[in-house]
Amino acid sequence: MRLPGNQVHFDEHDPSSEKGRQGLRSSLSGLDYSPLPRVSPRVLGMGVLVSMGGLIFGYDTGQISGFLEMPDFLERFGQLKDDGTLYFSTVRSGLIVALLSAGTLIGALLGSPIADRIGRKKAISFWCLVVSIGFVVQIAAVTAWYQVMIGRFISGLGVGGLSLMVPMYQAETAPYWIRGALVCAYQLFITMGIFLAACFNYGTVTHMPNSSACWRIVIGLGWVFTIVLGVGILFFPETPRYDYKVGKAERAKQTLCKVYAANMNHWSVFTQVEEIEAKVRLEHKVKQSSYKEFMGMWQAPRMAYRVLLGMTLQMFQQLTGANYFFYYGTTIFQSVQINSYITQIILNTINFLVTFLGLYMVEHYGRRKSLISGALWMFVCFMIFASVGHFSLDLKNPQNTPSAGIALIVFASLFILGFATTWGPMIWTIQAEIFPTRYRAKGMALSTASNWIWNFCIGFFTPFITKDIDFRYGYVFAGCNLCAAGIVYFFVIEGQGRTLEEIDTMYLERVIPWKSSKWQPPSAEEMARIRRAAQTGEEVDDVLDANGEVTGSDDALRGTNDAKEEGNGTSNGILSGDTASHQENA
């Protein structure tokens, strides 16, 4: 597959072409191999709308730092010192900020069974409703600080569900040659949400500082995003992989044709249909109860490895220290006399704009190179940042050391450049890629939960830690970034330009991560061997001819009652002799 300009070419997959690879099935020679648009209007529209789940996430998390400094918010929900000064204690501010993360943890875990039961797009609408309810609870608060905390917890449930559903919907629907960029768009919209929250906070506190409208308006504007996503997603199709899972094969094929901007006879659509059908057939044969399915996931080939890898990568995304920079932003910028609200706008503007670069990097330089270089970049930035902050900055009166403050601002900005182009967006891409269809919802739920656990820990405990060791806390994050680079090098497989089914096969084959970029999909004969070696429970006795094509009786290859149309109980044949996949995997 070649990606020159704005088109994708498939000559290397054509058996009748001089550019075709060896070992291709001769039965594929009659397919359409014409170039396809790299980004179709439908894919672009889907990417923008669905990624608004990230905007809701970023908007909800970004607004609270500004609220804690608003006079009216402080007067209503703060505490009173002996001298009459209003303030937020470390515990109270930590609970108000961090309870969102506690809610997101639970929402991410609940998201998996809900997504499997009602579908991906209906689940997105449901979680948008939950976020909206949380907004209502917060806006209705008058003087009870715990009501704000509870409202943020409820909103967190919805945000957690969306943090699972949005990357899953994009990964299961998008063409594989642009899947990475689309999933990265989720992180782009997170940064946009944080940026918008900072701008709205600055606007309201500037024009109505002593009115509850300064924070209630900001929360209320979040309804716009939840309504647009919650209602808009209903006009988009269900993901083709979920449609196949529930027996709606024809609708899934139509969705693939629309998304790929191709006809049913095009190689890209035909082979995707093969791969999805083969996996769904296998899943239906080994279908179990929810409990047995969850426990069986840990015993499935290479699944425990992948789940632990996903949870580890999400943990290190938090331990890169990005939230630490935003937490210390106010102190840093005080050294050069910049308003704290302007501080947030500056940092969030950088965070938002450079994420566009990440969309380019993920598909042009790959996941591994980008993540390793990003982790090393952030390691250097943190070492310099922590050293300057601890040894050169006047912590009691930062304005007395403007030179140190400028150095800190520069390296804070450089750190954000590294994070927003690599570890910010790309971890969500990898999480959406590494799990097979059968376990994707559960694997992503556990990985996302890991992110939120560490998000909560950092959000709640950072004020206590920085109070004791100040900028030396940065050395901890520097060490974490160095470890993160090693994790990626030794354990993460390159998924650039691969279908989800190919990535699954790479894990089953135990492809060496640092050699994974050169891996070539095996022939049908080799793929059959991989299935047998993995002991997937595949019961079809495939017979391979001299050309490596799969043959066999119609009954054996079609399967019986593999998937039934919900509501009318009609059976759908899953795999015919001519469409047996050369890339089927467990």
From TrEMBL:
<feature type="transmembrane region" description="Helical">
    <location>
        <begin position="43"/>
        <end position="66"/>
    </location>
</feature>
<dbReference type="GO" id="GO:0005351">
    <property type="term" value="F:carbohydrate:proton symporter activity"/>
</dbReference>
<feature type="region of interest" description="Disordered">
    <location>
        <begin position="1"/>
        <end position="29"/>
    </location>
</feature>
<feature type="transmembrane region" description="Helical">
    <location>
        <begin position="405"/>
        <end position="428"/>
    </location>
</feature>
<keyword id="KW-0812">Transmembrane</keyword>
<dbReference type="InterPro" id="IPR020846">
    <property type="entry name" value="MFS_dom"/>
</dbReference>
<feature type="region of interest" description="Disordered">
    <location>
        <begin position="536"/>
        <end position="586"/>
    </location>
</feature>
<feature type="transmembrane region" description="Helical">
    <location>
        <begin position="472"/>
        <end position="492"/>
    </location>
</feature>
<dbReference type="InterPro" id="IPR036259">
    <property type="entry name" value="MFS_trans_sf"/>
</dbReference>
<feature type="compositionally biased region" description="Polar residues">
    <location>
        <begin position="568"/>
        <end position="586"/>
    </location>
</feature>
<feature type="transmembrane region" description="Helical">
    <location>
        <begin position="181"/>
        <end position="203"/>
    </location>
</feature>
<dbReference type="GO" id="GO:0016020">
    <property type="term" value="C:membrane"/>
</dbReference>
<feature type="compositionally biased region" description="Basic and acidic residues">
    <location>
        <begin position="9"/>
        <end position="21"/>
    </location>
</feature>
<feature type="transmembrane region" description="Helical">
    <location>
        <begin position="152"/>
        <end position="169"/>
    </location>
</feature>
<dbReference type="InterPro" id="IPR005829">
    <property type="entry name" value="Sugar_transporter_CS"/>
</dbReference>
<feature type="transmembrane region" description="Helical">
    <location>
        <begin position="341"/>
        <end position="362"/>
    </location>
</feature>
<dbReference type="InterPro" id="IPR050360">
    <property type="entry name" value="MFS_Sugar_Transporters"/>
</dbReference>
<keyword id="KW-1133">Transmembrane helix</keyword>
<feature type="transmembrane region" description="Helical">
    <location>
        <begin position="215"/>
        <end position="236"/>
    </location>
</feature>
<feature type="transmembrane region" description="Helical">
    <location>
        <begin position="374"/>
        <end position="393"/>
    </location>
</feature>
<comment type="similarity">
    <text>Belongs to the major facilitator superfamily. Sugar transporter (TC 2.A.1.1) family.</text>
</comment>
<protein>
    <submittedName>
        <fullName>Hexose transporter-like protein</fullName>
    </submittedName>
</protein>
<feature type="transmembrane region" description="Helical">
    <location>
        <begin position="86"/>
        <end position="111"/>
    </location>
</feature>
<feature type="compositionally biased region" description="Basic and acidic residues">
    <location>
        <begin position="555"/>
        <end position="567"/>
    </location>
</feature>
<feature type="transmembrane region" description="Helical">
    <location>
        <begin position="123"/>
        <end position="146"/>
    </location>
</feature>
<keyword id="KW-0472">Membrane</keyword>
<feature type="transmembrane region" description="Helical">
    <location>
        <begin position="307"/>
        <end position="329"/>
    </location>
</feature>
<dbReference type="InterPro" id="IPR003663">
    <property type="entry name" value="Sugar/inositol_transpt"/>
</dbReference>
<feature type="transmembrane region" description="Helical">
    <location>
        <begin position="449"/>
        <end position="466"/>
    </location>
</feature>
<feature type="domain" description="Major facilitator superfamily (MFS) profile">
    <location>
        <begin position="46"/>
        <end position="496"/>
    </location>
</feature>
<dbReference type="InterPro" id="IPR005828">
    <property type="entry name" value="MFS_sugar_transport-like"/>
</dbReference>
<dbReference type="Pfam" id="PF00083">
    <property type="entry name" value="Sugar_tr"/>
</dbReference>
<keyword id="KW-0813">Transport</keyword>
